[in-house]
Amino acid sequence: MTDFLLELRCEEIPARMQVKASDDLARLFADELAKAGLKPSAIDSFVTPRRLALIARDLPLETAAVSEEFKGPRTSAPAQALDGFLRKTGLTQDQLEERDGVWFAVVNKPGRAAADVLAQAVPAVIRAFPWPKSMRWGAASQTTESLRWVRPLKGIVTILGEQLVDIEMEGLRSGYATLGHRFHHPGEITIGGAHDYLEKLRACHVIASHQERQAIIAAKADEAAAAHGYSVIEDKGLVAENAGLTEWPVPLLGDFDPAFLEVPPEVIQLTLRINQKYFVLRDTDGNLAPAFICTANIEAKDGGAAIIAGNRKVLAARLSDARFFWEQDRKTSLADHAKKLERITFHEKLGTVADKVERVAKLARWLVEEGIVGASAPAKAGAQGDEAQPNSGLLPLQEHCGAELATLAEQAARLCKADLVTEMVGEFPELQGVMGGYYARAEDLPDAVADAIRDHYKPVGQGDDVPTAPVTVAVSLADKLDTITSFFGIDEKPTGSKDPFALRRAALGIIQLVIKNDLRLRLLDLIIYVSRGNEGDFTQRFVFEDNFRDWLKAGGEGDLAAVNGILLRGNGLALLDFFADRLKVQQKEAGVRHDLIDAVFALGGEDDLVRLLARVKALQSFVATDDGANLLAGYKRAANILKKDAPDLSSARHPGLEPGSRFFDDAEGSGTPDQVRGDDAADALSYTHEPAEADLITALDAAEPRAAQAVAEERFEDAMTALATLRAPIDAFFDSVTVNDPDPDKRASRLALLARVRDAVHNVADFSKIAG
Amino acid sequence: MATSKALSFQDLILTLHAYWGKQGCVILQPYDMEVGAGTFHPATTLRSLGPDAWNAAYVQPSRRPTDGRYGENPNRLQHYYQYQVIMKPSPANLQELYLGSLVEIGIDPLVHDIRFVEDDWESPTLGAWGLGWEVWCDGMEVTQFTYFQQMGGFDCKPVAGELTYGLERLAMYIQGVDSVYDLKFNDAGVTYGDVFLENERQMSKWNFEVADTDKLLRWFKDCRAEYDQCIDRGVPLAAFEQAIKASHTFNLLQARGVISVQERASYMGQVRDMARGSCEAWMKHNGWAA
């Protein structure tokens, strides 16, 4: 048993690739050894900008001998079969064994020296290394077949115990020599083996462990900050990046002119972190400190004075630029900046960013006017009715608030993209929105507008803050809805892994906004709105069936569910399904059981995300109760019997009018017109109900309307409670009533009763989708 | 890092010339046409193609019309100098040679923090890309270091190493001045501003305000037509010059703000076609297989 050291030395490896490269090296190496039957007790891997290394612990000196047996043709088989077998095994006939009329070949592979295995494994690992980007170099690159590596590979150290494993490839020959720190120890150092590798490197100003360098950087940066009464704003990514840029990290603190602090702190932070890879500091009050910490790669002769001076100068120049942009951008109002958006193409088929802004502004206003956004606004203008309200004195005020909100939302939307053409966002694209917010405040626009401009990109993924301020919600929602409906309108839908316009992320943002703010956004209303275009021309971006279009042209007011034969096809339908899919994904990520989601989605007829989720939530709590679990069991038993004995009754209710649609309820809302209803059948019964049967009918008569009404009023918990009353009668029914009675009337009646149970349950969810 | 014996701007150039001359480089003079970067010099673009060894160093004035600031910004110029080194095949010790040049111009790597920070290079215009770094000195980018992998859409066989020093920036650092115009051009009291400030003012004005856009548009078309003729008549070096001219004319049109977003892609596509076409014709002319 002995340890093996491998070092692959090369020119500077990009910082962002190092940790993965280190893991890849260990993995590929272990795989290669495993192929040969060699297994170390552990592999420790190391990475610096100039080297990838690993130490494989406790390798056996040779692999175990193996004996493999191959079965050949029968001895009576034609000669060609035997010849083929001999060719395959590389043996002669006298080396074969005959057993019961069949030839067998026994191939004994003796153990191999570990050194030989390693001599093959290392070049294989090097050639197969999965660098994200690799290159050719030097004289060997005369051909494109030459070795590829992330940057030129300069040296290989392969020592097993204290013995060199001799490897020669691509003009490189392995040896005992490596290099220390580029500047502190430019000469060669000779490594004895795994036992002295780390210490020898350390003596030559190289800390091989990435983790150790990270720890040093974090600790010394904290120390330097504390010495000046500051603290470091934690940034693990930056610590790792600096550990990837140094073999001997030396954090140094410098300061900058406090006058620069007038520039927004986000700008200063980005300048320090992204451009210069400096740590950002804060003072005891939590404000940004006029200082930075850079991480040098040397123990400088002058203690770092020249390095700090140089970095201060570079930073001052960058902060001067930033301040110049800050001053320059504010000389022009956001409204004037916004005019320049006419010059930026949003999408070839969708016009300029200015065109998009126009759409978003109108949509933001519509969202408020429709009462979709705006906490205190009435749900719908018409919903207030003409009835005298006791608090009618407040109504004008409310309307005023709504009107003001609509105006603010439209104003914010018109300005929300203006910062894209500012110098600062040109320099720091990641500050889009943030800078617009600052510029809006600087020209004394209302806070609600400035906040909306700042935050309208949010949320940008699961876990991001979800806006709640009404103006922000309106703009954020309008921006994302416009993006999705616009791209669907030109048939640019996400497919498979392709989502070039990030529509899925936009949809997730919309879902988060809707849930967080409890917004009653009917997707159909939205599709109708965006399809109207300017002239009420519905053919513009979505395709509807004629009768639907006619209805829309005739005014299109009123509740959609009241309109017969509402059909839409093409991208409008695709859009509804897209949202349904996104909602499922979002709910799954939020930890909701996917079968419960499926159970609710299977009902169809729903384009209101909030209501859909309320149903999922109620279902989730219900199935966790005893009643829920037992009702589910009863339901499943009923459904199974129906499936087996009454296939004509067994199709679950799927009310979508359009095949494939998950959203369309039919006009009556809950009809199963072709089915024999238990209550109708009961009138014509020629037999007396057994008690349990009668009890179930009574229970159904009570529970059905209660559940239906609760669903209509969106009291889904109550709907569940109503269904729960069925549990005991169902259990009793199955205990004492035989469904498959020889009397065909009884049998038909009881099957119909079970169908009724199932349909009642389907008021709430399709229980057949629920597991367990 | 100002020291009493900090190199003047011209001595910085002379020192680099002497150093790279000793490493076997041909010391060339600037190419006599307007280019946006030293890479456009045929000594880099065309000579990085093909199997022959080639080592050269030169100063290349670089023109970037949109970077003009009328002489009012201490760091931005519409005309500045790059120092360019090209070595093919890339020598095994190119990094060490480069670091040697820094020591030569007065940067001690045990006093100053020199780092190689990932920065891959790509020029869609030239159909070229390479991997390498920007070299930082105390947090400032002083050099672009690239191993060319492709040029004009062709694999580099062998690969060339390219170094591009930003001369003004390096000189400002060595001399410890905050404005490019305060640089000592020589040791006899002439500053960079004495030489170039008025040029920056006038050329910024011409680039942004004066240049006749109708003529520029015509020039671009003429370059394209002349390029076609050069290709037909088998003179790829001349064709490449037309690509260079077209590229600069396009940059001027950009500065004049007369190219719409949609047109921009088409102009860039034409320049790219000319640059690649020249490289292809050059390869063919020399009998090199792709």
TrEMBL record, chain A:
The keyword ATP-binding applies. Residues 648-675 are annotated as: Disordered. Residues 682-764 form the DALR anticodon binding domain. GO terms for molecular function: glycine-tRNA ligase activity. Its EC number is 6.1.1.14. Belongs to the class-II aminoacyl-tRNA synthetase family. This is Glycine--tRNA ligase beta subunit. It comes from Sphingobium soli.
From TrEMBL, chain B:
This is Glycine--tRNA ligase alpha subunit. Keywords: Aminoacyl-tRNA synthetase, ATP-binding, Cytoplasm, Ligase, Nucleotide-binding, Protein biosynthesis. It is an enzyme of class 6 (ligase). InterPro entries: aa-tRNA-synth_II/BPL/LPL (IPR045864), Gly-tRNA-synth_heterodimer (IPR006194), Gly-tRNA_ligase_asu (IPR002310). Tetramer of two alpha and two beta subunits. It is found in: Cytoplasm. It catalyses: tRNA(Gly) + glycine + ATP = glycyl-tRNA(Gly) + AMP + diphosphate. PANTHER family: GLYCINE--TRNA LIGASE, CHLOROPLASTIC_MITOCHONDRIAL 2 (PTHR30075:SF2), GLYCYL-TRNA SYNTHETASE (PTHR30075). PROSITE patterns: AA_TRNA_LIGASE_II_GLYAB. CDD domains: GlyRS_alpha_core. GO terms for molecular function: glycine-tRNA ligase activity. HAMAP family: Gly_tRNA_synth_alpha. It comes from Sphingobium soli. It holds the Pfam family tRNA-synt_2e. Its EC number is 6.1.1.14. Belongs to the class-II aminoacyl-tRNA synthetase family. It comes from the Bacteria. Gene3D superfamilies: Bira Bifunctional Protein, Domain 2, Class II aaRS and biotin synthetases, domain 2.
